[in-house]
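Sanity check

After download, print the first record. It should look like this:
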Amino acid sequence: MGTPLRVAALADAVLRGETWALSRAITLVESTAASHMPAATELLERVLAAARGGAGISPRAVSTASRGGDGDEDGDWRVARTPSPHPSPSPPPPSLRVAISGSPGVGKSTFIESLGTALTARGERVAVLAIDPSSPRSGGAILGDKTRMAALSRSPLAYVRPTPSGGALGGVARRTDEAVALVEAAGYATVLVESVGVGQSEAAAAAVADVLVLLVPPSAGDGLQAAKRGVLDLADVVAVHKAASGGQTSGGGGAAAGSRGSVWPAPPLQPSSAARSTRQDYAAAVSLVRSRRRYWHPRVVLCDSVPPPGGSVTAVAASPPQPPSLPPLADAAGGGIKAETVLRPIDVWDDHVLPLWRALSRPPFGDLLSERASQREAWARAELKELLAAAAAADPATAATAAALRPRLARGEMTARAAAARMADTFLSGVMAR
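Expected structure tokens:
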């Protein structure tokens, strides 16, 4: 157990961008211990109040010298009920939250490693929240995504945090929304959320992000498979990943088409026939999807995260020219030469993610704030369900009803729906009687 730490001091350290404090704060809010809940609530209230008031550290003003140890040890948390010293003027500019989702093995960590390294080479501060699946039997998790992002993890401008899903469904962990708020308050204006390997219906990653990038592998099924609904309905960008032919580049020199803003010059990649076919199937499926945004239609692109010739991206200049303002690609979802270009992750970012972000974040941020308000409401409803389920499980009368119904359920004399209704009636009757 660590030494006791006042929540006020922890919140101030998070707002100063101290890495050890950020790690310990996320550990606190992710804790399932009932004794930690008051301190976690106090911490979030302080940090969010300061962030709303503009007292949080500027993303470009955080000293990289403040990085310390992980500070992930549990501890005793003292709730200090003292007034927050932070003022509340106008709100700060919004951050950019991007979820990277896709099936297991599609290359999410590789994509984020390439993208994050390119962004930090530009001088941007990037936080990565990588969600690892938890065992339904032991509850443990490997937490190996940080190992796959070794280069990015070493950057003083990056913060990589692996988190177990804890049995939560939908691709993210129970407290991912709160972890996002904490890393933003610590000065990370770009937040990448890597979901666990998801299927067609697991789309909770969209509830923590402004932009959802869905990675699909080559040979991801036929046209009917691509047309099936689910997470595809929420994706803003669909990237057919590992699209190059065995990672080989085509002949010719010069910069790759579509590589504006890339931090390495590289010859163009040659897409595989399987990747071309998959892109066409998903482009056809996306054309039938009614977009969830009035000004944006999902884009389907080819992408590969093969390293640049000559080694790591960090070997090049750290501050390349910023990408110019680019018009939307008119043929992003359909056919044509641009659609057949294999993009690097940074090109997907510059050509597709940033144009959507610019549209979302136009002052006074009406669309962005509306979407985030809806996301907070969705997380509040999910939290309410969990609290009610926990309260019912701890209620003696409800437990007695469950024990009485268990033999009938085992013999198949009662459906699960009927048993749940009986237990709910017992619990609600007890609540009303109190």
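If your output differs, re-run the checksum step. Summary of this record's structure: The two ends are 39 Å apart (CA to CA).
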